[in-house]
Each structure stands twice: as C-alpha cells, then as structure tokens.
Design brief:
2 domains; 6-stranded antiparallel beta sheet; alpha+beta; Rossmann fold; binds iron/sulfur cluster; binds glutamine; binds 1-O-pyrophosphono-5-O-phosphono-alpha-D-ribofuranose; 23 strands; 475 residues; 18 helices; binds magnesium ion; Glutamine Phosphoribosylpyrophosphate, subunit 1, domain 1; 7-stranded antiparallel beta sheet
C-alpha cells in the first residue's frame, strides 16, 4: 500500500463538429480543452460526404496532431476522442475513433464511459460473423449497428443503444452525418453547442464538457438528454428519445474531480459545486487553523469555498509542476516513490510555524495524502489537518472511471481513524454523502450515481469479484 503511487485515472473526452470548413482543426482545439479527460491516446476522424478519414496516435493531442497531420483530414464533419482506457489495453489498436465498414456503410465512433454487459453480446455477435478489430467495449456499439436488422441507420443505432448497458456518451459519424447520444441513466456528460455563421448554416458541435465550446467560440445550447439520440445532417438537427423511464444517475464524481471547474455539466457549473462542497466541509468539520492550503489542481476550488466559509485565509502552500501529467504513473519503483515530490513542492515560508488545513478532493489509495502530509510537516507546519471534499471512496467504478479494485481502496478496508494514522495527519475528515449531494443539486434537482461512496450500483451488471472487500489479513 505504502509505495503505490498510482492515483486516479482520467476518463475519455469526446467531440463532434458538423458544418465547418476546417472541422479537423475545430476538433483538435476541442480535444486540446478536453485533454484532462484522457492522455493515453487521441484521434480525429473527418468526413467530406465521400470519404471518412481517421488518424489516431498514442500520447497527447498536441503531439499527434501537427499541421501536416491535420492537413490530411479533409471535410466539414469531424469527431474526436482523448482516451484513458477502462476496457481493452492502452494500445493504438484500441485508440478511438473506431471505424467500422459495414453493410450500412462506414461508421466511426468515439465513446466516453464503460459498458457493463459486454461478454454475452460480444460472443453472440462473433457467432453471427462479426469480426472485432479491437478489444475495447466501444466497438460493440458499432458492431451491433452493423449487424442490426433495422431498416434505417437511425433505427439500427437506436436498436444497438437499447441493447447495451452501462455508461456511454458517444458521438458517431458516417460519410454524411453526425450522431450524438447518451445512455438512459446519463452517467457521463455531453453537451450540444452552436457556432453561429451569419453567411450560411450554423456549425453544430458536441463535447464532453462545455470548456471545449469556449475555445471554439461556440455557444452552449443544451445537454444531450439521457436516453436521447441526436442526428445532425445538412437539413438540420433532429432527435429521438430511444429510451424512457429509466431514472437519471449522473456521475457525481465528475463534479468532485474529473470535470474542469469552467465547465457546466448536468445543468450545473462544476466551480459552483466544488465551492459548495468546500463550504459544507467547513460547516461539518471545521477546525481552528491559520491557513487553508489546497492540493492542486483538483483541490483548489473546494479549498476556496472552505476558506470563504470558515474565514481562514487561503494560499498556495503547495506548488504544482505543470509538466508532470495529471496522474503521475511511473513503472519504475524508484521513480514512483519520488512521484508526488516531482509533482508538488511546499512553499516553506507560507507553512512554517502554522496550523494548516489541507484540502483535497479524494483519497484513493492514500499514497498522495501520506506523502503530502509529511511534506507539509517537514516544511515546518505546526499542525496538519486534512479535509476531503467527498465521502470515503469504498467501491470501484464500472462506468468509465478507472478506480482500483476494492482491496486497494484504503477506505474500503480501514476506518477514518486508521486512515488518519496511516497518513499521519493531526485530524482527518470527509464530506458527508448528504453534504455532497446538496452541494451538487442544481435547479434541475439532479439525481446522481454515488456508488463509489455507497457500493450501491445503478446497473445490475457489475464485476462481483471487484466489489468484495479485502480478505482478512491481506492488508
Ligand atoms: O490516494 P491516492 O491514490 O494517492 O490518489 C488521490 C489523489 O489522486 C488525485 O489527484 P491526481 O494526481 O490524479 O490529479 P490532479 O492533479 O488533477 O488533482 C486526487 O485528486 C488525489 O489528490
Ligand atoms: N474512460 C473511458 O471513457 C473509456 C472508454 C472505453 N471504455 C475505453 O476503454 O476505451
Ligand atoms: S461509481 Fe463513482 S465514479 Fe463511477 S459513475 Fe458512479 S459516482 Fe461516478
Ligand atoms: Mg488531486
């Protein structure tokens, strides 16, 4: 447990552009703004009514898509993806968009989320002659479309989406149209925006997070609804509800950690939710102190809320090296031990002799917290209190977040007091589940998935092995 420096893994980001003379570049810019959702691989597919081009690579968006590469992606339509794998290896083979040639023509897909009823569908499709190019779950959706007996493409898509269970915010493209859809529970965000063109039809865009719209100067129009399938052609935008009556369970962890504070997801600004989480945390578990210090980046907004509510000053007592990725994963043990130090460094003159409240969004394995508490104390802090802006993470995610298995989740196997002792903090407190839900309630009175804090999953299909607690004595 002590030396395992793996932290949370990000998710995927998706984008789609319809009706722009340089769709590839627009997709590139949007993916740049969605880089925080996945840094393993990225890809852009474009269509010009005749062909469907597709370029993918391992690594970061800006490294893969140089001017020369973008020039090879002609067309007024594009879809794009940044990946962090949840099903299938992290390999070029599984990078997205995935393009499949079928009797219904060429189809490309980009998917954020994770399907939970794969096994039986894949076997059935293979028996029916499907030839899978990848080992990722996302290809199942296109193979289902390709093998559907429905008469039209839209019916085939609706048919396919009704058969898969789990989390999916997807964008798809054929030679002449774009589709966007969300699973019936609306686990992952997906918004629709518009770039108004005074001289011609507007450009329609879809993106996982609205921060991508700002870079394109697109105006947010609405969210794609859970269970909705939107189609964009040269004739305009049409939509159908392929599924109804399933209760919404959007991922609350998007508000806690994943999404950027400058995005509006599930009808609510992430900044506002995190600010409220911090304020509520201060109300629930205040402690006398001299300074609030966030664990950057994800702890910053909640720390500002905590400071505003408690009246205790806020300052950046930890500085983050921005050239280290969001999650520092290094295969070599020697370098992993060094990981948190490479990423964060204390500002000694702010911390010396002070009672510090550190604010972070989550403790997964406890590695980061333990090292940071030590670091702050070594920099001269008199007391170190840790406050976490969500409840203890006790169960893994099956819906597109790569949290470790239950036996590696520190809160699944230890009490708060045991964790406090392990991370060597003077006090430790988490936000309550009620407090978190209140902080994320917007005008739409959202309903969320909170399974990683409760172990109660909104879908039937989860991997039972993964949710069993650690065997006694295995710690
Ligand atoms: O308990 P652990 O397993 O150590 O993981 C928890 C840490 O991981 C995440 O940060 P991360 O480094 O992923 O990224 P950030 O810079 O976006 O906050 C999270 O915000 C915690 O700080
Ligand atoms: N994090 C995600 O959304 C991943 C998408 C898909 N399940 C994959 O593994 O490629
Ligand atoms: S289990 Fe947690 S991370 Fe996964 S969808 Fe539910 S709330 Fe989000
Ligand atoms: Mg963090």
């Amino acid at each position: 447990m002590e030396d395992d420096a793996d932290t949370l893994h990000e998710e995927c980001g998706v984008v789609a552009i319809h009706g722009h003379p340089d769709a590839a570049r627009q997709a590139y810019l949007a993916l740049y703004a969605l880089q925080h959702r996945g840094q393993e691989s990225a890809g852009i597919a474009t269509a010009d009514y005749k062909n469907l081009s597709n370029i993918k690579g391992m690594g970061l968006v800006a490294d893969i898509f140089t001017d020369d590469v973008l020039a090879k992606l002609p067309g007024e339509m594009a879809i794009g993806h940044t990946r962090y794998s949840t099903t299938g290896d992290s390999a070029l083979l599984n990078a997205q968009p995935i393009r499949v040639d079928s009797t219904k023509g060429l189809i490309a897909i980009a998917h954020n989320g994770n399907l939970v009823n794969l096994g039986n569908i894949r076997t059935r499709l293979e028996r029916d002659g499907a030839f899978f190019q990848t080992t990722s779950d996302s290809e199942i959706i296109v193979q289902l479309i390709a093998h559907s007996h429905a008469g039209t493409l839209v019916d085939a898509i609706a048919d396919s989406l009704s058969q898969v269970d789990g989390a999916f915010s997807i964008v798809m493209m054929t030679r002449d149209r774009i589709f966007a859809a969300r699973d019936p529970r609306g686990f992952r965000p997906l918004s629709m925006g518009r770039i108004v063109n005074p001289d011609g039809p507007d450009t329609i865009v879809f993106a996982s997070e609205t921060c991508a719209f700002d870079l394109l100067r697109a105006k947010w129009e609405r969210d794609v609804k859970p269970g909705e399938l939107v189609m964009v052609t040269q004739d305009g935008v049409t939509s159908r509800q392929y599924s109804t009556g399933v209760p919404q369970t959007s991922c609350i962890f998007e508000h806690v950690y994943f999404a950027r504070p400058d995005s509006r997801i599930f009808g609510r600004w992430v900044q506002e939710s995190r600010d409220q989480m911090g304020r509520q945390l201060a109300r629930e578990s205040g402690v006398p102190a001299d300074l609030i210090v966030p664990v950057p980046d994800s702890g910053v907004t909640a720390a500002l809320g905590y400071s505003a509510e408690s009246g205790i000053p806020f300052n950046f007592g930890l500085i983050r090296n921005h050239y280290v990725g969001r999650t520092f994963i290094e295969p070599e043990q020697r370098v992993r031990d060094f990981g948190v130090k490479l990423k964060l460094n204390p500002v000694r003159n702010l911390l010396e002799g002070k009672r510090i409240i550190l604010i972070d969004d989550s403790i997964i394995r406890g590695t980061t917290s333990r090292k940071i508490v030590r670091m702050v104390r070594q920099a001269g802090a008199k007391e170190v209190h840790l406050r976490i802006s969500c409840p203890p993470t006790i169960s893994p995610c099956f819906y597109g977040v790569d949290t470790p298995r239950k036996k590696e989740l520190i809160a699944a196997n230890n009490s708060v007091e045991e964790i406090r002792r392990y991370i060597e903090a003077d006090t430790l407190a988490y936000l309550s589940l009620d407090g978190l839900e209140q902080a994320c309630h917007g005008v739409e009175n959202n309903h969320y998935c909170t399974a990683c804090y409760t172990g109660i999953y909104p879908t039937q299909w989860v991997d039972v092995e993964d949710i069993l607690p650690a065997a006694v004595g295995a710690r």
